[in-house]
Backbone:
């Protein structure tokens, strides 16, 4: 395997057939190239979708209300449904054992936020402390809203990183006062969100003080929960689905909404959506592997074909070698080594070309559902293994044929 | 060196069976230079192929240097060929992309000799056949006579017990043929056993014994007065 002469022979035969070698190599190289690009994009899709999901917790159940569309129990359609604290309390109590985090939110529309001369419009919401986890907010500076803030009606605010950059520039916003519709709030924290700028341009206030300042009474605009995750993803999805349906039924009964009125109250659960998307990603991945492997097979068949021709062309030479004392194994080794070398070399070329394209172009790809396509080290190693195996397959039949050549037939003078 | 007893060989082509060798009995002692003659179809090439372990007999025994040659698998046959035999072919059968030195070194490669020693020995044998300065040339850059000399050097390189030459002068003109025969005679003078298959009378008379084959049997086996090729060169 490692002797110089064998390698010299391989290079010599390849050099003598430059075009043939080039074309054969090209088919394998493009196969691997396509596989790498496809795998890169499947990881890009995964990255993109995952980061879409990461802006909020994936196990979220979100409740919001609108206007009834159906009359029910003597009530007319077109009634606005308003959630109250007691609704939140009911859901929290009824499903306490299944829920991990819970928050009730009160939004202040067109939230004009100002610091000194800087102003901006941001989503302003009164929330409960658990909102931090439901929103997937990472505290960068200071802290999030806590229960004391809520219980004591404190006028404090937690702002997104974008808000901080817009209003405070390089200044440290902690302990500074921002004004919302002219009411001063003390900034106690700045948060980051994997969902990006849009998610970071929000301001959170304690639910109680937000409502007090903006005449909210005990109204709730919407509420969010997360279900407890179990080890098994499928179980978690099932639980999430059941809890979602039960909450919807409870609220419909309590708020007197027709059971088939889908517009008046919406209870969404992200986990089920997530499961669909993840299984979609898996399917896309499988399809990409399939296409890539298929392309490689086409390339390998090409190599095998060429090797068969090579064996045919070298029949006489193989006969001579056998007459001089070459054992079948050494003939097989010779052909196999050449096949593996051609596949490996051109395959690695395709692999490196593919990786280079992803490396150079990848960082510029940042659309909502395809983000930073890349191929990790493990995948690269897997493709290299595929190459070696493919090369061996490509060489096997020709090598077997070569070993079967009878010197007496090969050496017969035509 | 070679003992052959009652050797039979048939070829089957479809429903026809062609009995090529019909009981050959034949011994060769060490140091002999024997020519096997016969018209085409007499079975001389078949006999040589069996002697060269490229083909196997249907019946009869073949003992080479005390080793019975029977039911060999490919691996053992390859090993015996490498150890016992040197081949010289009519069409030279050099590997055309290898230089003369590399061609001569090839049997030693299969013997497992280290590269440096191989090249050294190959040069030595090329010198012996008078091609010391042609070592780095490819076969395509050599004349017919030179190619056959390289082939002879290659046959000698594995230090075989027996040299088998199948029409070694068949593709050469008269002068070159005699040069090659002179070389073969020289090698025989050093004590090497050599079998030459030929259908040319003058070539056969340059050996020491002529075995005449006709229709698969030996019709004549007699020593001859050796004609030295030197006088024609």
Residues:
């Amino acid at each position: 395997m490692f002797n110089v002469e064998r390698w010299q022979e391989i290079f010599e035969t390849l050099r003598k057939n430059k075009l043939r070698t080039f074309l054969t190599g090209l088919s394998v190289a493009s196969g691997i190239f396509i596989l790498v690009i496809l795998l890169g994009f499947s990881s890009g899709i995964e990255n993109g979708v995952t980061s879409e999901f990461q802006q909020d917790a994936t196990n979220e159940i979100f409740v919001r209300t609108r206007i009834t569309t159906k009359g029910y129990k003597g009530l007319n359609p077109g009634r606005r449904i308003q959630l109250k604290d007691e609704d939140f309390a009911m859901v929290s109590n009824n499903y306490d054992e299944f829920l991990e985090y819970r928050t009730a939110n009160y939004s202040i529309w067109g939230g004009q936020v100002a610091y000194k001369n800087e102003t901006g419009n941001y989503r302003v919401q009164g929330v409960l402390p658990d909102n931090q986890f439901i929103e997937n907010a990472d505290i960068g500076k200071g802290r999030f809203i806590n229960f004391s803030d809520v219980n004591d009606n404190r006028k404090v605010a937690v702002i997104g990183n974008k808000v901080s950059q817009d209003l405070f520039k390089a200044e440290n916003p902690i302990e500074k006062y921002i004004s919302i519709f002219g009411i001063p709030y003390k900034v106690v924290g700045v948060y980051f969100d994997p969902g990006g700028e849009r998610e970071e341009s929000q301001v959170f206030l304690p639910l109680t003080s937000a409502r007090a300042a903006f005449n909210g009474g005990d109204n709730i605009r919407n509420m969010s929960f997360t279900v407890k995750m179990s080890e098994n993803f499928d179980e978690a999805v099932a639980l999430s689905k059941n809890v979602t349906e039960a909450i919807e039924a409870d609220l419909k009964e309590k708020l007197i909404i027709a059971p088939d009125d889908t517009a008046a109250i919406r209870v969404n659960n992200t986990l089920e959506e997530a499961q669909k998307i993840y299984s979609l990603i898996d399917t896309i991945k499988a399809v990409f592997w399939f296409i890539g492997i298929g392309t490689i097979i086409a390339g390998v068949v090409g190599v095998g074909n060429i090797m068969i021709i090579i064996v045919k062309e070298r029949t006489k030479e193989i006969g001579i070698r056998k007459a001089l004392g070459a054992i079948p194994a050494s003939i097989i080794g010779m052909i196999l080594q050449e096949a593996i070398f051609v596949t490996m070399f051109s395959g690695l070329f395709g692999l490196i070309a593919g990786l280079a394209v992803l490396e150079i172009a990848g960082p510029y790809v940042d659309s909502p559902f395809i983000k930073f396509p890349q191929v990790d080290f493990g995948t690269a190693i897997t493709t290299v293994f595929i190459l070696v195996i493919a090369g061996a397959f490509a060489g096997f039949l020709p090598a077997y044929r070569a070993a079967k050549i009878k010197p007496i037939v090969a050496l017969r003078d035509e | 060196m070679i003992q052959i007893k009652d050797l039979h060989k048939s070829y089957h082509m479809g429903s026809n069976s062609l009995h090529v060798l019909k009981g050959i009995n034949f011994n060769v002692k060490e140091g002999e230079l024997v020519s096997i003659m016969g018209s085409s179809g007499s079975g001389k090439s078949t006999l040589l192929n069996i002697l060269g372990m490229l083909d196997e007999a249907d019946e009869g025994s073949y003992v080479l240097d005390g080793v019975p040659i029977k039911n060999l698998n490919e691996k053992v046959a390859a090993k015996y060929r490498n150890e016992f035999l040197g081949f010289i072919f009519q069409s030279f059968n050099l590997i055309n992309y290898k230089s003369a030195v590399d061609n001569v070194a090839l049997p030693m490669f299969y013997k497992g000799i280290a590269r440096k020693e191989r090249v050294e020995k190959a040069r030595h044998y090329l010198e012996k056949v008078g091609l010391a300065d042609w070592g780095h040339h490819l076969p395509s850059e050599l004349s017919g006579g030179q190619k056959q000399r390289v082939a002879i050097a290659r046959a000698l390189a594995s230090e075989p017990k027996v040299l088998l030459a199948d029409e070694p002068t068949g593709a050469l003109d008269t002068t070159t043929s005699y040069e090659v025969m002179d070389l073969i005679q020289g090698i025989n003078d050093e004590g090497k056993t050599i079998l030459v298959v030929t259908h040319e009378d003058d070539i056969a008379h340059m050996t020491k014994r002529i075995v005449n084959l006709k229709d698969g049997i030996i019709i004549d086996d007699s020593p001859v007065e050796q004609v030295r090729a030197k006088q024609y060169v």
User: Anything to note?
Assistant: The interface with chain A takes residues 49, 52, 54-55, 74-75, 78-79, 81-83, 87, 89-91, 93-95, 97, 102, 106-107, 109-111, 115, 154, 158 of chain B (CB under 8 Å). Residues 84 and 160 of chain B are 5 Å apart (CA to CA). The first helix of chain B runs from residue 44 to 51.
